[in-house]
Amino acid sequence: MNRSLVFAYPGDLSLKTGGYGYDRQVLDGLRKLGWQITLLPLGEGFPFPTADTRRGAETALSSIPDGTLVLIDGLAFGVLDAWAGAHAERLQIIALVHHPLALETGLSDEQQQHFRQSEQRALAAARHVIVTSPMTARELASNYGVASSRITVALPGIDKSDVRRVVNAAPQILSVGTLTRRKGHDVLLRALKSVEDLDWQAVIIGSKSLDPSTSEALARQVETLGLEARVQLLGEVDDPQVHFASADIFALASRYEGYGMVFAEALSHGLPIVACHAGAVPDVVPSDAGILVPVDDAPAFGEALRRLLQSPREREMRSAAALQAGSLLPTWADTAAIISNTLDGIS
């Protein structure tokens, strides 16, 4: 069996984000299953590429030989609708959608409409669509005209290992997510200010380079709120597992998540969670393991933190529930196997 594949992706595949992390893990798993993979970078700036970047991406993709199986990350594919329509017959195009582009936060109505229409056209040209959550599958089937039979859900995996817990003098609150508006760190900071009377320390891990203006605004917000001695904005770290192992509570106020890999990671480490009813988060975080509040509701987020900070007993109960839920999550080998079987069925 010829198990060869071109994987086309935008930006920097080495970035420490959930989406790129998913891509790296899947590629590694597919290689272990015998797939020969050719990497095809499409350039920076997606889903807002310059005209030159778009032309370069389309030229590179157009040079792929007829009949090739091509897996394209949705961050780029959703705006390459014209190219996809022109090459749908000669290539076996598979889309990998982490979440629909139109559901990104901070977009104007015009941008949302543009992304929705372009992604719908692009997906119509794909032989099959791989998504990372049931919620995204439902969204594409309901609002993008993609038949359920053309969608495969491949949940992100986790690296299952023994849970190591550190005993802290003061509860440690961990948040992991790029310093972008969608991750809602501004809401978390306001919530932390509201529980300033309690004993805690907080660490926020995530790239500062993807959205420098938001990153700088968050640093100013920490200073304005007077939380410099209690909140660390660490940026990217080499080994986030160390921070998961030393945390007592996981808190992330995302405004939208197509899945939320960090929530699965928190569950696998037995961390009680405070988060928002946003996108796929309720599908990932069981009600007995986490407290979910409305999006952008800093007072409610603060009250949820207060509950956990003031009640070691509730933290213990939710920690046990988190561990149980985490034990049921797939491994990355499981994720790669699902995608491999899907690709075999197409190629």
From TrEMBL:
GO terms for molecular function: glycosyltransferase activity. One of its GO terms (biological process) is lipopolysaccharide biosynthetic process. The keyword Transcription regulation does not apply. Keywords: Transferase. Residues 74-160 form the Glycosyltransferase subfamily 4-like N-terminal domain. PANTHER family: GLYCOSYLTRANSFERASE WBBK-RELATED. This is Glycosyl transferase, group 1. It comes from Agrobacterium albertimagni AOL15.
